[in-house]
Amino acid sequence: MMVDIATYDGKLVESILGQRSVQERAMEHSRAKRMLAKQIARQRRLPQCIIIGVMKCGTSALISFMNLHPDVATAPGESNYFNNYYNRTLEWYRSQMPLSRANQTTMSKTANYFEKYEVIDRIYAMDPNVKIILVVRDPVYIYRSSYALHIEHWTRVFPLGAHLHVVDGAKLISDPISELRKVEAFLGLRHYISGNNIVFDHERKVYCRVSRSGVKLCLDKAAKGVKHPTIDPAAEAKLRTYFKPLNQRFYQIVGHDFGWT
Ligand SMILES: Nc1ncnc2c1ncn2[C@@H]1O[C@H](COP(=O)(O)OS(=O)(=O)O)[C@@H](OP(=O)(O)O)[C@H]1O
Question: Does any domain span residue 261?
């Protein structure tokens, strides 16, 4: 608006200028708010949830399924920060994280943390409220070590239920939606993952994600999967005898029988 201020008396000019400057200030304020909102909207944040293992148990499937959730942002790859790169700064670790909005949970995975005990206190020092997820499968085929030997190192620092959750890797293959619902509950996320966004691919014989635009995305199971060794039945029987009491102990600790017989 063009205003010839000379034609107005002093009070009116002051009031017009005053109004304009209030409007300008309001515009500046809303511009600043928009900029701030933009900054808050997309930042790299340290993870609030870390998948610690176990390798070959389905950690890739878990994190890719969780990536479907609008309130989750997942880090690509495995940073190995708390074991191999702990001499680097926390800012380096943050730079490995995805951009996320303030209402999203950032998830990261390094599938070989479980047996690296030095990692436990380091994660705790980063954030004592972080949530930890362990994926397990029958140790005879996949793990070659006993979960019972390691789990208590973690539960002493990250109590089960509140801070540590165990995912059944076999169920993640056969019935992922039920396992993912438990993960959603553990992370305090609204229920989102369902048959609408996870479907069974009959050709590949594996569950796959369905993107929001309707594209089916399958993990390359053949490339990812471990070549299961053919175990001599006598050796397998020996292994089962060895693992039996350790598995029972693990079931007791985590309060769930995984049915490895
Ligand atoms: N939905 C889906 N798609 C593809 N693969 C799936 C899926 N769910 C679980 N799995 C099983 O994950 C097993 C590989 O485990 P990881 O991803 O943890 O392996 S790795 O440590 O990251 O290399 C691998 O196990 P095996 O098939 O027994 O080899 C996969 O079958």
Answer: no
Q: Which residues constitute the domain of residue 33?
A: 5-40
Nearest CA to ligand 1 atom 25: 225
Pair of tokens at residue 101: 């909005």
Ligand 1 geometric centre to CA of 58 (Å)? 4
Give the ipTM of the model, two decimals please: 0.98
Domain count, the chain: 2
Residues 140, 70 within the same domain: yes
Residues 30, 146, single domain; the answer is: no
Residue 56 designated active-site: yes
Lowest mean pLDDT among 47-51, 144-148, 175-179, 225-229: 225-229
For 164-202, write each residue's pLDDT tens digit: 999 999 999 999 999 999 999 999 999 999 999 999 999
**In a domain? residue 200:** yes
